[in-house]
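Researcher: Sequence recovery benchmark, item below. Answer with residues only.
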């Protein structure tokens, strides 16, 4: 499924996570986090999906429609407005926010307009406001009058999408408890869609890990693995939780299973190197990181691998 390319950073400046160069002791300890430094930005990005325009409207988005052209007050015109608004979120979030609010007032309350407003708020680093708005939309989805015909017939799936995006917004706002609550609401609304349930367990497991609720994180990630045992993500994140708990043997088993499924996966190799390093096997750690550099020389993962190799020199 092809989603919008609109992306908002959630991790801030990754350089701010780097270890201070002058503090050698911190640098020596920090190697276990360096593998995640460059990747954290990507992992906490929201690929701001327009929640599939069909949820809000019955016709296709046409984002190239001229913004200055007068549009009638029809559902088809609202689809065009939604496309315009999404493009503005990417190009000019301030303008997108004004556009969405004016549109919402003009149409006397419209879910697509409010959703675009939430995306604009996220792009402006006003994530708390975005999260509140997204949750309000999710909570009122069964009473809202601002939905298109398709949305009216697919309220449950729309509710899951809104709660999921609210969880990511709360995560960016730094309120992990509310992020957990929102993603749990998404799970409750997910019905019997196993692929969706698996994804939500995976996301909740990551949130639980950030909350340092490691037993709960392991439980959710294990459920995600049970739904998709051939997918590497569950093993990858569960391995990291085991590492946080200093259970390196269990972490190695999960990384080994994931590498059997995807031998040249850059992030798995990076984490494998970290595990070798914390286990005292520096040579194997270097070999894993060097493989990342050789396979993906221009990637952020390779940069993290190079930095970890440099940290080995001062350990």
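Model:
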């Amino acid at each position: 499924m092809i989603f919008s390319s609109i992306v908002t950073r959630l991790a801030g400046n990754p350089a701010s996570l780097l270890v201070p160069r002058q503090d050698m002791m911190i640098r020596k300890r920090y190697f276990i986090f360096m593998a995640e430094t460059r990747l954290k930005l990507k992992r906490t990005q929201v690929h701001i999906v327009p929640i599939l325009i069909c949820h809000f409207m019955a016709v296709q988005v046409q984002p190239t429609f001229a913004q200055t052209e007068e549009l009638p007050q029809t559902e088809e015109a609202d689809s065009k407005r939604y496309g315009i608004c999404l493009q503005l979120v990417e190009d000019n979030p301030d303008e997108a926010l004004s556009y969405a609010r004016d549109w919402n007032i003009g149409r006397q309350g419209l879910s697509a307009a409010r959703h675009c407003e939430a995306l604009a708020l996220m792009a402006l680093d006003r994530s708390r406001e975005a999260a509140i708005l997204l949750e309000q939309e999710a909570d009122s989805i069964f009473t809202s009058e601002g939905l298109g015909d398709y949305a009216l017939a697919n309220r449950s799936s729309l509710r899951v999408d809104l709660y999921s995006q609210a969880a990511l917004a709360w995560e960016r706002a730094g309120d992990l408890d509310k992020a957990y609550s929102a993603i749990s609401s998404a799970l409750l609304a997910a019905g019997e869609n196993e692929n969706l349930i698996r994804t939500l367990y995976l996301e909740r497991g990551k949130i639980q890990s950030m909350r340092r609720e490691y037993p709960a994180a392991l439980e959710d990630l294990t459920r995600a693995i049970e739904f998709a045992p051939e997918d590497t993500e569950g093993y990858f994140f569960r391995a990291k939780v085991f590492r946080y708990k200093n259970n390196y043997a269990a972490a190695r088993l999960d990384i080994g299973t994931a590498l059997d499924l995807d031998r040249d996966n850059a992030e798995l190799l990076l984490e494998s190197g970290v595990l070798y390093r914390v286990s005292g096997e520096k040579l194997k750690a270097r070999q894993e990181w060097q493989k990342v550099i050789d396979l993906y020389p221009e990637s952020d993962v390779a940069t993290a691998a190079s930095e970890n190799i440099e940290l080995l020199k001062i350990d």
